[in-house]
Amino acid sequence: MKSYLIPWLSFLTISLSPLRAAGETIPDETCLECHEDKELTKDLPDGQPMSLFVDASKLKLSAHGKTQCAECHQDLTAKHPDDEKAAQAVNCAACHEKQSKSFGASVHGIALGKGDDTAATCKDCHGTHEVFPRNSVKSSIHHANLLKTCGACHGEQADDVAASVHGKAMIDGETDAPTCIDCHSEHQIIGLAAPSSSFKTAETCSKCHANERINSRFGLPTNRVNTFFESYHGLATAGGSTLAANCASCHGYHRILSSKDPDSSIHSNHLLETCGKCHPGASSGFVGGRIHADEAASDEIGMVVNHWVKRIYLMLIGLTVGILGLHNGVAWCRKVAARRRAQGETVIRMDRCQRVQHFLLMTSFIVLAVTGFALKFPNTWFAHLMGTEDIRIWIHRAAGLVLMGSGAYHIYYVTFTTKGRRLLRDLWPRWSDARDVATNVSHLAMGKPKAKFGRFGYPEKIEYWAVVWGTVVMGITGMAIWLKIDVTQWVPRWVIDVAVTIHYYEAILACLAIVIWHFYHVMFDPDIYPMNFAWWDGRVSKKWHEEEHPLETEVSEQEKEKS
């Protein structure tokens, strides 16, 4: 039987059995007539007596003080104990469903599901009749009592924790000191000894040791987590290695001692032994290195040398790449200029007004993409280049206003100007575009003649209307996110969450479309490489124009003949 079915079958067995007649209740006074007797016991299968005494005064002060006995012991009837039916285990899931579900996935719950009667249950941790809230000093899971509670089953581990820096702080009453559940979780208790838990162990330690408040309060170094994950051990662990050392491999699991303690696994007296577990034959020279190395703050000769070597190399890299980039950049510009002069006669493809509109669209789009992804992923290197989050937000919003302003002007341009109306007419989708797509598919697949385009073919039309769609969607969702307080006066809060999702994924779609589709046609296409300079001066090669837009060339020649 699957282990996860056992709790539910137990629950159904209790729930569906003919327990008490409808409306029948057993008053607490009836139960206490017997159970207030301190001498009341029952014999366990091993012959040992078990007390059945219930202290009514303590029960009333507990978290279940207002709960009747019969609400938990639903299997008992008014005939108890004359029916000689022993009380069954209480089904805590009837009231604590979420906690019981988490517990079922824990090492304790899984062991119970496999039939291990020694595994801890709810009452082993929380108690039976004297269940107190966690913040009560009487509670068995209170910060001060947790070590004793877990130690009832895990005595050796509890002794190790008590001797550790964590345990000593816990015993001294430090509420920020980590307890068993801080590392192993609360109900869904996890084991951290298996090799597969290597990265989880590092994450567990990071919860406290990457916390600025805790580090500041206890005078701990602030760089322990960062320097670990920058080391080989940390990189390998983050990459999924189950063999690389994690925090516990060096510091221990429960008996974690200060590096100054002679008994510590990271004390100089024990480093050969500790490192030797993974590095057989390690010498004193090998273990002299540091995992948590702060080169800038160290006065050790090795750290100082390493720090300056790093700085020299960074300057060397910047100088070398700068000189090489300058050399090749100047060469590229000269060659591009020479190639443009050699292309012969040119034709106007974009006038000045259209180029200005394209420039505003291009720059605002780039700024929006960079700042938007920096806001979504604030820990990336390019996010830090733009300062604080507030700076990134306002740059993003300003670029959004530029984009929407450009869009508003473009609507005016294509509506009220002669060139604009012609532009819109030439970009309007037609049935002939579908025919051109089919023709070009045959051209690409079988080498047949390619489609002949007029002023704009389907590639330009797809780009244009995609920009129109994207600007509208991003503008609406962006303003909704910006003005969320005002917007939620009229719509539910989940509308904003949907707007955030649309805004994010539409941004990904737009960026990928620009790189894959637009960049190919204006830069990566071998016929146009290194780029189509129409965005700069409005001109393209007449030869290229005749090959790519032959129908527009024919129309232009016919207009010349008529004139």
Q: In brief, what are we looking at here?
A:
The protein is mainly α. It is built from 29 helices and four strands. It has a domain at 343-562: Transmembrane di-heme cytochromes, Chain C (Fumarate Reductase Cytochrome B subunit, Up-down Bundle).
Q: Write down the overall mean pLDDT.
A: 88
Number of helices: 29
Q: CATH class of the domain at 343-562, please? A: Mainly Alpha
CATH topology of the domain at 343-562: Fumarate Reductase Cytochrome B subunit
CATH homologous superfamily identity of the domain at 343-562: Transmembrane di-heme cytochromes, Chain C
Low-confidence stretches are 1-23
Q: How many strands, which pairing sense, and closed or not: the largest β-sheet?
A: 2 strands, antiparallel
- How much is the radius of gyration in Å? 37 Å
| Cα separation of the termini | 91 Å
General form: elongated
What proportion strand? under 5%
Total strand count, please? Answer: 4
Write out the strand line-up for the largest beta sheet, numbering strands in chain order.
Answer: 1-2
- The CATH architecture of the domain at 343-562 can be given as Up-down Bundle
Classify the secondary structure makeup into a structural class.
mainly alpha
Proportion of helical residues: 55-70%
